[in-house]
Amino acid sequence: MTYTTDDVKEYFDFFDQEDFEEIQGKTGYGSRWTFGHTSLGKGHPEYHTNTPFWKIDFAEDSFVCDHLLNKIQKKLNTRFRLQHAYANGHTFGQDGSIHVDAQTDNGRTLLLYVNPKWHPMLGGETNFYINDGGVHGVFPKENKAVLFPGKIPHCAAPCTRHFKGLRVTVAWKLFIDD
After folding, report:
1. What is the pLDDT of residues 24-65, one digit of tens each?
2. Under a CB-based contact definition with an 8 Å cutoff, are residues 149 and 124 in contact?
3. Which of 67, 99, 107, 176 is deepest in the core (most CB within 10 A)?
4. Taking the CB of residue 57, how many other CB atoms lie within 10 A of it?
5. Entry pTM
6. What's the rounded Cα separation, in Å, for the pair 38 and 47?
7. CB distance 154 to 126 below 8 Å
């Protein structure tokens, strides 16, 4: 299957203010961040090339996995099965490795940008590698969500030295429910 930039869909002001503030609270400083997550799992043959970054696992969080999943399904008018939900955190110099999130055509990822007031000179975009060489970059913007087929290779670009904080996204790994 070939993909185009039209397959990477951006949604602005995705969640209502109350839900978005709850997400910000769950991913703020002092939260359950752990270091060492990578884009490629430990069994991947190129695991040694990974740059580790920060992660919060939301597997047991009913707000993220139930309440927000219901909102996602209503907003996108699609039934999904949730595989995993977690937050990613990147500081200056921490980028992700190019990877895919799903091996099947019904896999989707919804990626939500959490940081307020992002500027392009801070870097940190999500790069999508479309059809053998085309790169489509999506810059962070507060409460912007990006929905894309999980088979599209992508990665987080590093934040520049101008960024002094933690670039935060929340990812829902989904399958379209037949």
Report:
1. 999 987 778 888 766 755 565 554 556 777 789 999 999 999
2. no
3. 107
4. 14
5. 0.91
6. 8
7. yes
